[in-house]
Amino acid sequence: MSKVAGRTFVASDAKNNFGALIDAAQREPVAIKRNGRPVAYIISPKEMERIEDWYLGARAMEVIKKGKWLGVEESERYIKSVLKDA
User: Fold this and answer.
1) Burial bucket for residue 24 (CB in 10 Å: 0-12, 13-18, 19+)
2) DSSP string, 53-83
3) Of 16, 21, 61, 65, which is the most buried if we count CB atoms within 10 A?
């Protein structure tokens, strides 16, 4: 496998060695480079969940700081209206 260095795959190697790319991404994020520049990153589902949890937590903290959240009853009404329209 040429041009594979640690956590970086050249785009053509990523294409030709997709299985190795996926295996590597299970251990750590992998950068894919084209013309020497990163064009994508591949991460494991576990890492994606961690990022989503962090993002949702950060968004929740913003809402709490601004004091702009719905109460329980208003949240229930909103959810019921969305489900009714679906």
Assistant:
1) buried
2) HHHHHHHHHHHHHHT----HHHHHHHHHHHH
3) 21
